[in-house]
Design a protein that fits this description.
This protein is of the alpha/beta class. The chain is built from 20 helices and 14 strands. The strands form three sheets. The protein has an eight-stranded mixed beta sheet with strand order 7-14-13-8-12-9-11-10, with helices on both faces. A four-stranded antiparallel beta sheet has the order 4-5-1-6. Strands 2-3 form a two-stranded antiparallel sheet. It is rod-shaped and about 200 Å long.
């Protein structure tokens, strides 16, 4: 056996490799099992909260109507006041959609449905606007705009109106009212356009008629004043001019000078020529007046014809849309849809519960698996010990020594036997006697149970085993064994005042299995431990094949680190789901700093059900 007095230097610890945060199926199932109640509580809270919220909601009824826009629209041309047909463009459709969402359109719908005075649509409250006020009108319009939505699919000309209200009939009225208001407004808009055009044409016809009459009268007066209705007058004047010109020529041939007769004849000729010139100017003026009258007459006739075309169309106006689906009164509310919402709340609660479980798992830095302990300490995990079942009568736990003899093929027994086998295989072949220390980071982690069970299984396998109870504070290992539990001072054992043989007592129902217990007043000082290693321990190693030392927890007390220098191997017990990662890390570091040789960890107190599901071993009962 190695010299128990010589302190060993701390062994260098390899840096832990980066842990790959990847969850396999086994870890996933463990996560669910550890947090199943959290997940169930979250699911129940989500479903219950959703149900309570839905119960407080006011039921809403939905109604749907649809209308199809025409492929073209008819408008009055502002140039010639004629009806013209234009193709319906995308911009025009978007404009109509915006009009359906406008406040002015909503105001028209509210007026048609008499919503401004409808207290069911918008109840009157003490702090709300009174009936007939402008504030209430704005509030009604705001609520109406929120009550219906306008939808269009792709490039389709079909517009769907979805309306919601607290009453079924009101929802259908709003959906149909929007469509009817749009159709009526389109008809009204066209009729108003036709009426404006006809009114304009009437005014123009009246003006043109008056102007035509006036010019006709002026032309008649002009003809009468200038005797333009005498068509033979120009011919008579030309004959007179020709006659007088001939007479003057004869008088010139006879050499008749400047006589009175000649002067009178020349004056008459000049007067005739002036009349002919005046006649020509008047005829030209009359021609211009006739053309003006003809133009006014043509314009007048054109406007009369356009008026005759527009007036019949007033009663034949086609709307810009037609209703293809009329909203029906709904029988069931669309909101709250309790079955569907609760069905969605179930997976939502599961997802939320799983997320909280992940957060809890990430924040809960406790050891659950041997792989986790190995990654943290860089020490092998030598065994996974299931939880020791309790007695049925009062639920008290079995004593390990009695349970191992009574149930040799139980999961607990097989796990301890497997631990002994794995741990024994780590020893060197030239070492006959082995001294093992069993400790833990914190109290209540099962180190005494593991130490007692380890010693009992080794004894059942035929080895001579001694259990040293070096936990003077609780003496957990000794209390688990029936029979003589007398304790002895460590100093009395070291100086020989109490013979070692007298301090050892056998374990009932076991052969080759003894116990040595030190009393509560014993102090595990370095000197007492060195004296024990020099005087008492050689006597024990010569008599026993295996010595198991049960010590106090490492953290908070220095006893385990001091006693550990006596041991060839040290096992650190980890309680599944209880031991924090920081405690295990500090425990291993403290033992290594004290020169204690660590063999590995032992994962204790695994739930037997999880123990079987994780396939970590078991007895015949498992198979």
């Amino acid at each position: 056996m190695n010299d128990p007095i010589r302190r060993r230097p701390r062994q260098p610890v390899k840096a832990a490799p980066a842990r790959v945060e990847r969850m396999d199926s086994e870890e996933f199932m463990q996560l669910l099992r550890r947090n199943i109640w959290l997940i169930l509580v979250v699911v129940l809270l989500v479903i219950g909260g959703t149900a309570a919220y839905l119960m407080r909601q006011t039921p809403l009824y939905s109604a749907q109507s649809a209308m199809a826009l025409t492929n073209s629209e008819v408008r009055i041309s502002q140039i010639d006041t004629q009806m013209e047909v234009y193709d319906l463009t995308r911009a025009r459709v978007e404009t109509e959609l915006d009009r359906l969402r406008s406040r002015s359109f909503a105001e028209d719908v509210a007026s048609r449905l008499d919503l401004f005075a409808n207290t069911e649509f918008l109840p009157v409250t003490e702090d709300g606007p009174p009936l007939g006020s402008s504030e209430r009108a704005r509030a009604v319009i705001d609520k109406l705009l929120k009550s219906y939505s306008v939808q269009r699919t792709g490039e389709s000309l079909v517009i769907t109106i979805m309306a919601e209200a607290a009453y079924p009939q009101l929802a259908a009225d709003i959906a149909n009212g929007v469509v009817n208001a749009f159709i009526d407004q389109s008809v009204t808009r066209q009729v108003e356009g036709i009426e404006r055009s006809t009114e304009y044409l009437r005014r123009q016809i009246d003006t043109s008629g008056e102007q035509l009459t006036l010019e006709q009268m002026q032309m008649a007066d002009f003809i009468r004043e200038n005797v333009l209705d005498d068509a033979e007058l120009p011919e008579r004047l030309r004959r007179e001019r020709s006659h007088m010109t001939s007479v003057l020529a004869v008088m010139d041939g006879r050499a008749q000078g400047d006589t009175a007769e000649r002067q009178k004849l020349e004056a008459d000729l000049k007067e005739v020529e002036d009349q002919l010139a005046e006649r020509t100017r008047n005829e030209m003026q009359l021609s211009r007046m006739e053309r003006s009258v003809d133009l006014l007459s043509t314009r007048y006739q054109t406007m009369v014809e356009r008026l005759n075309q527009l007036e019949p169309q007033r009663d034949q106006v086609d709307p810009d849309a037609r209703q293809v689906t009329a909203a029906e009164v709904p029988y069931e509310p669309s909101w709250p849809n309790i079955p569907t919402t609760l069905a969605l709340a179930l997976p939502a609660g599961l997802v939320l519960g799983f997320i909280l479980a992940l957060l809890r798992s990430s924040m809960n830095r406790q050891i659950w698996t041997g792989a986790q302990a190995t990654h943290l300490t860089q020490l092998p995990n030598l065994g996974n010990i299931p939880r020791l079942a309790g007695r049925r009568l009062f639920g008290r736990k079995h004593a390990p020594t009695r349970f191992l003899r009574r149930f040799p093929r139980s999961e607990f027994s097989e796990a301890i036997r497997s631990l002994v086998t794995i741990w024994s295989s780590q020893g060197t072949s030239n070492v006959r006697h082995r001294l093992a220390m069993v400790t833990s980071a914190l109290p209540n982690e099962g180190k005494s149970t593991v130490a007692t069970s380890l010693a009992a299984v080794a004894a059942l396998d035929g080895q001579r085993v001694l259990l040293l109870d070096f936990d003077p504070h609780r003496a957990g290992a000794s209390l688990m064994i029936e029979g003589n539990r007398e304790a002895h001072p460590l100093g009395a054992l070291n100086d020989g005042s109490v013979p070692v043989g007298d301090a050892i007592y056998p374990v009932p129902e076991y052969e080759n299995f003894d116990v040595l217990r030190i009393d509560r007043d014993s102090r595990l000082t370095p000197k007492n431990i060195d004296d024990f290693g020099e005087t008492v321990l050689p006597q024990l190693t010569s008599e026993y094949d295996l010595i198991v030392i049960d010590t106090p927890p490492v953290l908070g007390m220095a006893d385990a680190a001091r006693v550990g220098i006596l041991a060839d191997e040290t096992l650190v017990v980890v309680r599944a789901g209880k031991t924090p990662e920081s405690a295990l890390r500090n425990c291993v570091e403290r033992l290594e700093d004290s020169g204690v040789r660590l063999s590995g960890t032992v994962l204790n107190d695994i739930d037997p059900r999880r123990y079987r599901q994780m396939n970590l071993g078991g007895g015949y009962g498992y198979y």
